[in-house]
Amino acid sequence: MIDMIEKEEPIISEEEAAQYDRQIRLWGLDAQKRLRGSRVLLVGLGGLGAEVAKNLILAGVKGLTLLDHEQVTEESCRAQFLVPVTARGQNRAQASLERAQYLNPMVEVRAYPDRPEDKPDDFFLQFDAVCLTGCSRDLMVRVDQLCSQRNIKVFCGDVYGYYGYMFSDLGKEHHYVEEKPKTVKPAQGSSDGPEAKKAKIDPNETTMVKKTASFCSLKEALEVDWTSEKAKASLKRTPVDYFLLHVLLKFRTDKGRDPDPQSFAEDSQLLRQIRDDVLESLAVSGDLLSDDFVSYCFSEMSPVCAVVGGVLGQEVVKALSQRDAPHRNFFFFDGRKGNGVVDYFGPN
Amino acid sequence: MVQLVGSLRKELADSLSSCRVLVVGAGGIGCELLKNLVLTGFKNIEVIDLDTIDVSNLNRQFLFQKKHVGKSKAQVAKESALQFCPTANITAYHDSIMNPDYNVEFFRNFMLVMNALDNRAARNHVNRMCLAADIPLIESGTAGYLGQVTVIKKGLTECYECQPKPSQKTFPGCTIRNTPSEPIHCIVWAKYLFNQLFGEEDADQEVSPDTADPEAAWNPEEAAARATASEKDGDIKRVSTKEWARSTGYDSIKLFNKLFKDDIMYLLTMDKLWKKRKAPLPLDWQQLENHARPQEDSPGSGLKDQQVLGIWGYCKLFQHSVETLRSQLEQKGDGAELVWDKDDPPAMDFVTAAANLRMHIFSMNMKSRFDIKSMAGNIIPAIATTNAVIAGLIVLEGLKILSGELESCRSIFLNKCPNLRKKLLVPCVLDPPSANCYVCASKPEVTVKLNVHKSMVVFLQDKILKERFGMVAPDVQIEDGKGTILISSEEGETEANNSKFLSDFGIRNGSRLQADDFLQDYTLLINVLHTEDLEKDVEFEVVGDAPDKAPPPPSNQEETNSITNGNKDSAQPSTSSKGQQRTESLSWLLLLGSVPTVKYLAVTSLNLTVNRTPREQEHLSEDKHEPAHAEITRV
Question: A59, B384: Cβ pair inside 8 Å?
Answer without folding.
Answer: yes
